[in-house]
Automatic annotation (TrEMBL):
Keywords: Lyase. Residues 1-25 are annotated as: Disordered. It holds the Pfam family Amidohydro_2. The lineage of its organism: Bacteria, Bacillati, Actinomycetota, Actinomycetes, Mycobacteriales. This is 2-hydroxy-3-carboxy-6-oxo-7-methylocta-2, 4-dienoate decarboxylase. GO terms for biological process: secondary metabolic process. PANTHER family: 2-AMINO-3-CARBOXYLMUCONATE-6-SEMIALDEHYDE DECARBOXYLASE, ISO-OROTATE DECARBOXYLASE (EUROFUNG). It comes from Mycolicibacterium smegmatis (strain MKD8).
Amino acid sequence: MTDAAEWWPELAPRIERSRAPKPPGTCVDAHTHLSVKPAAALAKPYFRPEYEPRSLYSSEETTRYNAEYRASPLNTAQFEEAEQRLADMDAQGVDIQLLAVPPAEYFYWLPEDEALRANRIQHERIAEVVTTWPTRFAGVANVPMNYPELAVETLREAQRDFGFHGVEVSADVLGLDLDDRRFDPFWEAVAELDMTVILHPQGFTHGRRFTDYYLVNVMCMPLASTLAVTRMILGGVWRRHPHLRVLVVHGGGYLPFYIARTDHAWRVRPELRHHLDIPPSEVLRSIYVDTNVFDARMVEQLVGDLGADHVVMGTDYPFDMSTVDPVAFLSGTRMSEDDRAQVLGGNAIRLFKINAAP
């Protein structure tokens, strides 16, 4: 067996210069996270372990490693400092990053007033970075989803005051699934404002069997998205809000690669047809996905099944589960140059109304 010291990675993914030449068009990383520490400090007194599924179901080894990893100087800079991000982007060949908070900083469990304050602090920090480097960054909102009416108000403010054209949400809200009708006003507002939702799970709420081997992330993150999107489809969310645009990270979870089973069940089982009168795969084709799947063949399948106009480049920067050389990764996929240009940046520019002028 190979000695662990020979292959054990550094605590933070060090970005090296891309193995591929810079493409001629604008390259947008539509899946990145910017940590906002003042908001986290505000929220900390209200935190309880059950609010964070990934931490709750992590092993002692994972908890210890994650703490060391996040405390490393390089990763701290990557999460918090625009200057470090710019250096990494230049090495990767990425022109623009779309900034969203890390899922651990949704803070859905905060009381209403504190939630508003935390979201405002996050939006101000993201807007500060975007305003300072307007050709390199764009931002999306985080809203208090546990209070849908307040979430709608915050969403409108985020677009009006900060110019955000997207919003990031978890795959559940404190265990409540996204097909619940209490969220209908929020979906309606998103569609009305012509914004795009980034669906990014915080973890899987029933992760007791996933504690070992870092399965709490490796399997549970795409599993949470799979469950959320399946419930949204079968629960009629897109039937009620046909203009809703949702980008599901991590390649859309497992559902795009196993939708045929859901289609079959829809045909033979009445339980799946209460809110849906077309096969689930037809609704699935309306969602958007990113390329953070680590296998070029999977990207090719997503492009083939959903269309090149529904796939965006996304890395999960700066987590260690990120695609560290996204341009080179996509250069290895079989698709037309026009399709590749859409995936590399064109789709994200359109979905989030990004100003890509030089």
